[in-house]
Amino acid sequence: MAESEGWALPKGNLMAGKKGVVMGIANQNSIAWGIASQLAAQGAEMCFTYLGEGLERRVRPLAESVGVDFLVQADVTDDASMDAAFAEIEKRFGKLDFLVHSVAFANKDELKGSFIDNTTREGFLTAMNISAFSFVDSARRAAAIMNPNGSIVTMTYLGSERTIPNYNTMGVAKAALEAATRYAARDLGPRGIRVNAISAGAMRTLSLAGISGGRGMIAQGRNFSAMKEDTSMEGVAGCALWLLSDLGRSTTGEVVHVDAGFHIMGMPDDVEG
Ligand SMILES: NC(=O)c1ccc[n+]([C@@H]2O[C@H](COP(=O)([O-])OP(=O)(O)OC[C@H]3O[C@@H](n4cnc5c(N)ncnc54)[C@H](O)[C@@H]3O)[C@@H](O)[C@H]2O)c1
Fold this sequence. Notes:
Elements: E1 19-23, H1 31-41, E2 45-50, H2 53-65, E3 71-73, H3 79-93, E4 96-101, H4 115-118, H5 121-143, E5 146-156, H6 168-188, E6 194-200, H7 206-209, H8 214-223, H9 233-244, E7 255-258
Parallel strand pairs: 1-2, 1-4, 2-3, 4-5, 5-6, 6-7
Helix pairs in contact: 1-9, 5-6
The structure holds nicotinamide-adenine-dinucleotide (NAD).
Nicotinamide-adenine-dinucleotide is lined by residues 24-26, 30-32, 51, 55, 74-77, 102-105, 130, 155-157, 200, 202-203, 205-208.
């Protein structure tokens, strides 16, 4: 998200001297891109990983717009691809200070209707592999070359804690992701590395379009939130900046909700019978 798209990025030096990897930019609507542009405005040096050649066309111009020339292809389901990506990252950067994991996928057929009836073994394992295990794998690879005082952030959604229509198998994968965040925080804490998750409200991205009724999730998220407004990209990116910079010191193993207060609501406002 560039400033021209209506968001005045706070500029500063909070990430000056820090090098990191951002995984999960697919286009200008990606949450990873919102976070990356904020990190760039605060002086971070970054590598962007992207899924496939088709996406490079979209990711490269975005990267260039914030002065990033280090793009690496990485498919989280393919060990050889991950080996090659992290070898390249180590070769160029040596050490890392942060990792943003903003990657998820589940088959469209499983993001609708009945969870019990529509969840297959293959689909369940795909969602778990790409949306939860990939975080464990990426965090391990990044931590191996991470400086003390490093920070890792992943993206989750309230469907892990509460049932959300159609979110189904992805909700279960997000629950695993959040538990993995806590276990990783425990493991990496003694090495001075913090690990946190941001639970963002529904936002209009490619991934959301894969969920049946995705647009409805945005409207419900707004109407049923404490603030009665959409989750903003600047809010999510601001939270990532806090957690990834030294401002976030002493916060680890946390799931921070950035959803305009959607997660605190237990009942609609209108309770008159
Ligand atoms: N959009 C929302 O409403 C919302 C809300 C809360 C959390 N999230 C989470 O935010 C994260 C980013 O999603 P987004 O909404 O920005 O959508 P997005 O589609 O822009 O990003 C998802 C990314 O995952 C990548 N990906 C999928 N399979 C991959 C693989 N095998 N290897 C490597 N990368 C792969 C895609 O290329 C894409 O860049 C996801 O974890 C998503 O669940 C999204």
